[in-house]
Amino acid sequence: MSKTITIDGKTIPFMDGQTIMDAALAARVYIPHLCHNPEFKPHGSCKLCTVKANGRLVSSCTMPACEGMEVENGTKELNDERRDLVRMLFVEGNHLCPTCEKSGNCQLQAVAYCLGMMSPRYNHFYPQREVDASHPDVFLDRNRCILCELCVRASRDVDGKNVFGLSGRGIGSRLVVNSCSGRLGDSDFAVSDKAAQVCPTGAILIKRQGFKVPIGQRIYDHKTICQVESQGKTGGEEDE
Amino acid sequence: MNDRKKVRIASCSLAGCFGCHMSLLDIDERLFDLLDLVEFDRTPLTDIKHCSPCDVGIVEGGVCNAENVHVLKEFRKNCKVLVAMGACAITGGLPAMRNNIDLWDCFQEVYQYEGGLEGGRIPNDPELPLPFDKVHPIYEVVKVDYFLPGCPPPADAIWKFLTDLLAGREPKLDYEQLHYD
Fold first, then answer.
1. Which stretches of chain A are assigned E, i.e. beta strand?
2. CB neighbour list of residue A17: distance below 8 Å, 6 or more residues apart
3. Percent of chain B scoring above 70 in pLDDT
4. Is residue B114 part of a domain?
């Protein structure tokens, strides 16, 4: 018999070594997240996947599941906190959805929809962030970067190139490029890199693709991110 | 005819493009149903210059100059319920794209370097409202009761919002009506 946890009362099987998030993803139970992508090592930074496990707040992407663990996920308390986290992400950057090519396919936006964010509530920082259009095939727009490090992990762990990194601390943290000039065009980054495909927002955009998919046919136009993730990105053909 | 006292609504566009008001007009023939329930105070449709006591105030656009603040405060003072309509009122929107550009650089680019303008002088008439160095959403200036996102909010979202509000329900948009773009 496999071991199990419960998430909001639903019994979910897991194997030793799996995190709460791993178990939830395998069972197609949606726990909101932005910095997590099952293809990469957990980062545990966005804190959106915070759940209550046996009464304690933990990041589900880093917390190992253990036999009999009782997890609260979709509670009002947790979703209120998550909505506030998303609001802070929105005001810390320059997230102007009407101007962004990623709109409709953006995970940050989709999570905000899913959590019913009607306004960012907090005062906007309108920070000064650099746009780097030096690469022939890819834009780097730091206005939309949420510092999830997915591109950092993809470039380091999959592409073996270490093109990206985070520099600075606190509110001064920023995404930097590993080239002499600091420009993406002077790095060995390629459009075919995994790191070009993983950005959850519109910070890394492939050129000449903008608005290719019309409004109404974008990923989150009709389905919530919760519905999309619950159905599985691969069409749900995987079996246990 | 409806004998009930009509709900009085005011609306305005601050640093916006009037696109949200165009979207309001897109409720089409439902405008007649709306007019059974409401009467308009200051709006771009009535051309009344100042807001008097109202039940609902709907504000499009962010705050980019001193006049915007005066209008917004007049709305807050006179409206029992204040609604921020559209991306600009809620986030600053497209006008806020200038927030990372020095205001003087903006003026020079528009009035001095751009070709085709006679004289190349930056307007400086005392009657012109003082521009701010940054554009802000309206909730950073006054308390806002409800938010109706979208660029613009779809007509169906505006209709759903208004009918909920007029029926005394807590306004709630369907998933497909909630958009930031």
1. 3-7, 10-14, 50-53, 56-59, 70-72, 131-132, 138-141, 164-167, 174-177, 204-206
2. A64
3. 98
4. no
A98, A119, A127 ranked by CB distance to B84: nearest:
A119
CB B109 within 8 A of CB B83: no
B136-160: pLDDT as tens digits: 999 999 999 999 999 999 999 999 9
Flag whether B103 is in a domain. no
DSSP string, B107-154: HIIIIIISTT-STT-----TTSPPEEEEEE-GGGTS--SEEE-SSSPP
Confidence of residue A1 (pLDDT cuts 50, 70, 90): low
In a domain, B115, yes or no: no
Please tell me if residue B174 touches chain A, with a CB cutoff of 8 Å. no
Q: Which residues contact A240 (CB under 8 A, 6 or more apart)?
A: A13, A26
Whether pLDDT at A239 is above 70: no
| B105 lies in some domain | no
Residue A240, pLDDT score: 32
Sorted by where each starts, the structural domains of chain A and their CATH numbers stand as 3-74 (3.10.20.740), 81-227 (3.30.70.20)
Q: What is the domain extent for residue B53?
A: 7-97+131-177
Q: Say yes or no to pLDDT of A215 above 90.
A: yes
Residue B43 sits in a domain of what CATH number?
3.40.50.700
For B87-139, the pLDDT digits (tens) are 999 999 999 999 999 999 999 998 888 777 777 788 889 999 999 999 999 99
CB contact under 8 A, B180 and A128: no
A97 to B151: CB separation less than 8 angstroms, yes or no: yes
